[in-house]
Design a protein that fits this description.
6-stranded mixed sheet, 5-stranded mixed sheet, alpha/beta, Polyamine Oxidase, Chain A, domain 2, binds flavin-adenine dinucleotide, single chain, FAD/NAD(P)-binding domain
Length: 457
């Protein structure tokens, strides 16, 4: 009898504790508290639905990640609200609503940007030369996208150099143009067909400038999260949608819901960190594994004093253009002697595996060429490794040489049996990789749920 009782007790203990009973009315669960998850939850909550957000990490925001460990706000992840002139940019509306002050990025303004060659000499460019160079590359890229769609930006620039059309263009400038596109795509240009880069560049130009929220991007995510039921440190491990009610499992307990919105990053889906029962449909699995996941990281350095000028941004020509060629002067934003570099693609993937000491040493090399051997070492730093960051596992999705990207993303966004919904930057068909569009994907899924379960007025 005692044994029986013990076995029964152990059995009971091993059963998940269900957080919602089936009789409590309509329940919506959102997995992930990044901007897309917060967007779905905010919208549904404000419309009167009962929503719970399960977040794996100990903080909300996901890839919007303002760090204050150095004593001032630094963005480890996204820092710009891109496309400030885009119609219906919800982040711009929130910014206005909260009265947040912003700083306009030099990326699109090309104002206050300095260029150095490999030896550290400043390169002065005439505006008309810059325009001529950009025009020639743009035109050649456009033609190449039609006659040889498999070509990439490297091919196009090499071709123009060979036929002498870029003979007057300093190599440092060609690198800077190249790197700007690679940073925004989070991928090496050789891994992307030229047509994709043209789309990126056209989108960036058409939708206005980029704005950085002074005091931290997290003011927006904190605002979106107010009064929501968010459970932190709660990684979802399994979603069982085999019966009418969906069961969502974490290590601690299980939840029962009518609809579940999965907003976890593409990297988490690619590494199968959540088990789906039954398995996801083949087309969905195909989309998950074939959408390209980019890599971009930041190395943020605080020095004892400022040894650089007042330029907002500087490029230093390098043997390998991906290796700490692009620098941003963060002093203009945080009033501290801080600069940071963004690295992308394979170089960034490679550096994620290296020690902090190695990364800092590599970052200091171009700075010593330009500003002298005697510049001080940083007194503090932040190095991101988004590809290794638990529950993120990548920077953002990008288009590569894969199957039809548009079809894959449409498939990724498709709900399953009107029970499991998908949001998040990678599910945005045309504007993947951004914060404003990630938020839009959350609102898109909230709309579907409201249509499926209209609340009585
Ligand atoms: C270095 C860097 C710079 C960037 N710069 C910009 C920029 O300047 N402007 C811009 O617009 N965009 C930028 N981006 C992209 C932008 O940050 C993302 O597109 C956007 O924030 C993604 O939001 P999301 O809600 O889709 O995903 P996320 O923010 O990643 O949210 C997903 C959430 O799901 C959680 N999660 C994962 N697994 C589980 C699980 N099993 N259970 C529960 N929760 C889970 C994660 O912890 C995370 O909080 C940048 C990204 C990086 C990495």
């Amino acid at each position: 009898m005692k044994i029986f009782i013990r076995v029964l007790f152990a059995y009971i203990l091993l059963q998940p504790v269900y957080a919602f009973s089936e009789s409590e009315g309509l329940k919506i669960l959102v997995v992930g508290a990044g901007i897309s998850g917060l967007g779905v939850a905010r919208d549904l909550h404000d419309s009167g639905y009962k929503v719970t957000v399960l977040e794996a990490r100990n903080k909300i925001g996901g890839r919007i990640d303002t760090d204050r460990s150095l004593g001032f706000p630094i963005e480890r992840g996204a820092n710009w609200i891109h496309s400030n002139e885009l119609e219906n940019n919800r982040l711009m509306s929130i910014k206005e609503e909260l009265g947040l002050k912003t700083y306009i990025s030099p990326l699109t303004a090309y104002d206050g940007v300095k260029l150095f060659d490999k030896s550290g000499n400043v390169i002065n460019l005439k505006k008309e030369d810059l325009e001529k160079i950009e025009f020639r590359i743009g035109l050649a890229a456009y033609i190449a996208s039609y006659i040889k769609p498999s070509s990439n930006l490297e091919d196009v620039i090499d071709f123009l150099k060979r036929i002498g059309l870029l003979s007057f263009a300093p190599n440092a400038l060609l690198q800077a143009i190249h790197q700007t596109l690679e940073l925004s795509a989070a991928e090496d240009s050789r891994n992307m067909p030229i047509g994709v880069l043209i789309e990126e560049a056209e989108y960036a130009e058409s939708a206005g400038s980029d704005e950085e929220v002074l005091g931290g991007f997290d003011q927006i995510t904190n605002h979106l999260s107010q009064n929501l039921d968010i459970k932190l440190n709660t990684p979802v491990t399994k979603i069982d949608y085999s019966s009418k009610k969906i069961k969502v499992f974490t290590d601690e307990q299980a939840y029962v819901a009518d609809s579940v919105v999965v907003t976890v990053p593409l990297g988490v889906l690619q590494q199968n960190l959540i088990e789906f029962v039954p398995e996801l449909p083949e087309k969905k699995k195909d989309a998950i594994s074939n959408i390209n996941l980019g890599n971009v990281n930041k190395v943020i350095l605080r020095f004892p004093y400022k040894f650089w000028g007042d330029d907002k941004m500087f490029f230093i020509e390098r043997e390998n253009r991906s290796a700490f060629s692009t620098w941003f002067n963060n002093e203009v934003i945080v009033n501290e002697p801080v600069i940071y570099s963004i690295i992308s693609g394979d170089y960034s993937r490679e550096l994620e595996k290296k020690s902090d000491e190695y990364v800092i040493e590599e970052a200091m090399k171009p700075l010593r060429v330009v500003y002298g051997k005697d510049i001080p070492n940083p007194d503090s730093f932040l190095i991101t490794r988004w590809g290794l960051e638990p529950y993120i596992l990548g920077s953002y999705s990008t288009a590569g040489y894969n199957q039809d990207d548009l079809t894959l993303r449409t498939e990724l966004a498709n709900p399953i049996e009107n029970k499991i919904f998908f949001a998040g930057e990678a599910t945005s068909v045309n504007e993947y990789g951004f914060t404003h569009s990630a938020l839009d994907t959350g609102l898109r899924e909230a709309k579907k749920i409201k249509e499926l379960y209209p609340l009585d007025l």
